[in-house]
Each structure stands twice: as C-alpha cells, then as structure tokens.
Design brief:
Blueprint: H1 3-25, H2 32-36, H3 39-48, H4 53-75, H5 79-97, H6 100-108, H7 116-145, H8 147-152, H9 157-179, H10 181-198, H11 202-227, H12 231-246
C-alpha cells in the first residue's frame, strides 16, 4: 500500500463527502449507483485503446451527466428518471465494449499503483470539486429548497444544475479508481446519510460527511492491505458500520433534513 494510493483515496473521499451531502439533500440518494455505471463504455474504450481506464471513465461520465441535463430539460422528467434512461443505455453499451476479466475488474477490482497523470488529475479534480461546493453551497441550498425562489434570487438554476451534475460525475470518476463501478455510489451516499441524522446544521453536515468519508476510506484501505483483500468492499463495509453506530447517537432536529 503506497502513500500515493492512501492520499488519492482520501482526496476522492473528501470530494465524495461534499458532493454526497447535496445529493442526499436533493433526494438523489439512489442516483450515484446507476450513474456510476455510465463509466463502463468509457472504461471499455480506454482498455481497447490501451489507455488508463480512469480517463475513459471520466469522459463517459461527463458525457452522461450532460445528456442527463439535456434530457431532463427536454423531457421534463426528474433527474433520477433521466439518469435511469442514460444508465440503461450505458450499461448495454458497456457490456459490448468491455468483457471478461477487464469488465470484472471494472466492476469489482482494486486500484493498483496510480500513474503520475492519475495522481495529478485526481488531486486537481478533488480540489476543484471542493472549491465548487464551498463557493456555491448557499446557491445549491436555495435551489434545493425552491427552484423558483432561487431564480428570484438571481440564481441561474439550469446552469448551476449542470455544473453540479458535472462535479457529481467527476467525483464518481475519481472514486472509481479505488472503489470501482458497483461500490462508488456507496461512498457518496453512506457518509452523507450518516451525518444528516446527527448534524444540527448544514455546516456540521458537510464537515461530518467529509470526516466520515475520509475516515472510512483510510481505515478501510489499511484493513484491506492487512487482510490482502480488495479495497472497495472493505471501505464500504467500514462506512456502513459507521452508519449503524450513528444510530446510537441522539437524532438531530429537522434542520438538515431537506
């Protein structure tokens, strides 16, 4: 287990915590898992071209997020419903573009040693996501409460929604390096749901979510290294264990239960 792997997995976890907090408040708790499957065609193409799967995954996820945004406006459907359409098509395409051991590795496999390009990309992406959430947190909150109220306050709701979906996609992409397709959604959602139940305001929720995601990733990575097992499932189990322990803590009031 290298220092780079631990550092990059924690960076991805911090981004997942920040984005996941707003995903939970937006009622997108089940969206992270299906949208992560949109990465499959990109992974398949990258493998076929002998490129790093991370960049193929991120490209496919960004395209998928943009399609969700476009279709959502055209079809006047909910974000979750539109993601379901894109997810179904991407999964079908992915089954053709990746197969055998490569597909299994994309679904369940471990991270391996990151390249210099991957290291730089993940760190820059995590910083960009953190900066976006910190800068736009108030506008995101107003948009969650009421789109009409946000428009009245001068917020460009459609543009902000697009940028959020793109940040959501990048978060999933950089996390796939360690958790893979079938598990990345869990790290985005579980820490956020855990924090939502015990936080008393949005600031506490964001801080707790980031801390829980980073802690679950660090502990899970160390345990996986010790047991010589795949990292992703262990991280998710640690996060789920944290959620169960949080049930012993007195529940917060409705301040963060958007």
């Amino acid at each position: 287990m290298t220092t780079e792997v631990v550092l990059l997995s924690v960076a991805a976890a911090i981004a997942a915590g920040l984005i996941g907090s707003f995903a939970v408040m937006r009622g997108m708790s089940l969206a992270a898992d299906p949208i992560s499957h949109v990465a499959l065609p990109g992974i398949g193409v990258a493998l076929a071209l002998h490129r790093e799967p991370l960049f193929g995954a991120v490209a496919a996820l960004l395209l998928g997020a943009f399609l969700v945004w476009v279709l959502q406006g055209k079809a006047r459907a909910t974000t979750e419903a539109t993601i379901g359409v894109v997810f179904s098509a991407a999964l079908a395409i992915g089954s053709f573009s990746a197969s055998g051991e490569n597909l299994i590795d994309a679904l369940f496999g471990g991270g391996g040693t990151p390249s210099v390009a991957e290291t730089v990309f993940v760190l820059l992406a995590a910083l960009t996501i953190a900066a976006f959430v910190i800068r736009e947190r108030n506008r995101l909150l107003v948009m969650i409460v009421s789109s009409d109220l946000a428009r009245t306050a001068g917020v460009n709701v459609r543009r902000l929604d697009l940028v959020y979906l793109l940040m959501f996609a990048i978060t999933i992409g950089i996390g796939l390096r360690y958790l893979r397709v079938l598990l990345m959604g869990a790290l985005i959602i579980i820490p956020a749901v855990t924090a939502k139940g015990i936080a008393r305001n949005i600031g506490q929720m964001l801080s707790m979510t980031v801390a829980l995601a980073a802690l679950a990733t660090t502990i899970g990575t160390l345990i996986a290294s010790w047991l010589q097992q795949e990292t992703g499932p262990i991280i998710v189990l640690v996060a789920a264990g944290g959620f169960l322990l949080s049930l012993l803590v007195p529940r917060a009031n409705a301040a963060t239960r958007a």
